[in-house]
């Protein structure tokens, strides 16, 4: 391993702290080009802005030509009573109020997705009673027929109107929660016509 590189033409010419044509030890001096971005590169994608270059323009929305910017609707009057509330979505008058802002009620598209599940299992009490009474008589096996239902999960409700979209999650407290949400959703759809 102590043999010299047969392909080297003499002096080491490039590496950290050395540029082509620089003597060893001069590459780290301030103001000399080194590793990183090319010094003559025009700033753009992948290159940082430097004070020598003009600052990029502020963010502009990227809407296609002729696409209208969605309107911002004023908040509902203070005295208006809510007609419907699903999670954090509230219908007041002719507007839908969400944490993200107001949307027009007319033409709104409502959707719901059931992400809940109901599990059925034998409770611990039933298993203990079945073991105790199985020793006395076989009638104790009837305790294994005890069932306990538990519903977990959420129902996702989404509304889209006036170029805006909002989704909310309603916790499922029982197997009939989806029926209640769908009844409210169908009422909201009838208001949106």
UniProtKB/TrEMBL annotation:
Point to the regions of Gly residues compositional bias. 16-34
Keyword annotations for this protein, in alphabetical order, are: Membrane, Transmembrane, Transmembrane helix
Residue ranges crossing the lipid bilayer per the database entry: 125-146
Superkingdom: Bacteria
Region annotated Disordered, chain positions = 1-41
What is the name of this protein? Uncharacterized protein
Organism classification: Bacteria, Bacillati, Actinomycetota, Actinomycetes, Kitasatosporales
């Amino acid at each position: 391993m102590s043999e010299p590189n047969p392909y080297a033409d003499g002096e080491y010419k490039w590496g950290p702290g050395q540029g082509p044509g620089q003597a060893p030890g001069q590459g780290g001096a301030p103001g000399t080009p080194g590793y990183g971005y090319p010094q003559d590169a025009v700033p753009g994608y992948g290159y940082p802005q430097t004070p020598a270059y003009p600052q990029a323009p502020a963010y502009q929305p990227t809407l296609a030509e002729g696409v209208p910017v969605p309107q911002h609707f004023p908040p509902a009057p203070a005295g208006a009573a809510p007609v419907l509330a699903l999670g954090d979505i509230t219908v007041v008058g002719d507007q839908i109020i969400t944490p993200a802002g107001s949307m027009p009620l007319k033409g709104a598209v409502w959707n719901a997705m059931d992400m809940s599940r109901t599990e059925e299992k034998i409770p611990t009490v039933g298993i203990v009673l079945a073991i105790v009474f199985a020793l006395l008589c076989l009638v104790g096996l009837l305790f294994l027929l005890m069932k306990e239902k538990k519903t977990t999960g959420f129902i996702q409700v989404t509304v889209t109107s006036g170029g805006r979209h909002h989704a909310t999650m309603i916790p499922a407290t029982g197997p009939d929660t989806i029926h209640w949400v769908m009844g409210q959703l169908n009422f909201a759809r009838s208001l949106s016509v």
